[in-house]
Write a structure and sequence with these properties.
By secondary structure, the protein is an alpha/beta fold. The chain has a domain of 128 residues: Rossmann fold, CATH 3.40.50.150. It has five helices and eight strands. An eight-stranded mixed beta sheet has the order 3-2-1-4-5-8-7-6. The longest helix has 15 residues.
Length: 193
């Protein structure tokens, strides 16, 4: 894996060994960030089920102001910390070790500043994680989202996520290879997504 663009462009990243973590491919990350390009500079970015941290690190490389990583697996957390250290990233991020649901419920409002972009990529075989996390973000924890925030879920192309989770409605679906990207927002469909 490598960083696609920005400050750390072309730098390589490590991925956890084994099949428990499935890193977002370079090509799919490039697609995500091509869509998000106008939103990244200065954004507050939440990388859920972060694994190696490739998506959040890409956001930092492209100018995100702050990234919060959430990952439960100790091996993946070690790789994530190693990737940040290898790149010399010492500020602009926070790492939360634990389950996504628990970490989200423990987060406190930060002076009214919610996240501008949320990316979630649970293990494909943990289908219940999609609905649980999207329901939290579209329901009782919607204060975590800034005005106009976008929530992106990476999933199997064949697995269809719901069009609506509480206040979140799907605004776009992109498919690439075996993967799908569902974009959600609290606003009505935005053609720029």
């Amino acid at each position: 894996m490598r960083i696609i663009a920005g400050t750390y462009r072309s730098r390589t990243l490590q991925a956890p060994e084994g099949l428990a973590t499935r890193p977002t491919s370079d090509r799919l990350r490039e697609t995500v960030f091509n869509v998000l390009a106008p939103r990244i500079e200065g954004a507050r970015f939440l990388d859920l089920y972060a694994g190696s941290g490739a998506v959040g690190i890409e956001a930092l490389s492209r100018g995100a102001a702050h990234v919060e990583f959430v990952e439960r697996a100790p091996v993946a957390l070690a790789v994530l910390r190693g990737n940040l250290a290898k790149l010399g990233v010492t500020a602009g991020f926070r790492i939360h070790g634990g389950s996504v649901g628990t970490v989200l419920r423990r987060m406190k409002p930060d002076a009214g500043a919610g996240f501008d972009v949320v990316f979630l990529d649970p293990p494909y075989d943990a289908a219940e994680e999609y609905s649980a996390t999207l329901a939290l973000l579209g329901g009782g924890l919607d204060w975590l989202l800034a005005e106009g925030a976008v929530v992106i879920a990476e999933h199997r192309r064949k697995e269809r996520l719901e069009d609506k989770y509480g206040a979140l409605g799907r605004t776009r679906l992109l498919e690439q290879g075996d993967a799908g990207l569902s974009f959600y927002s609290r606003r009505t469909a935005d053609p720029s997504l």
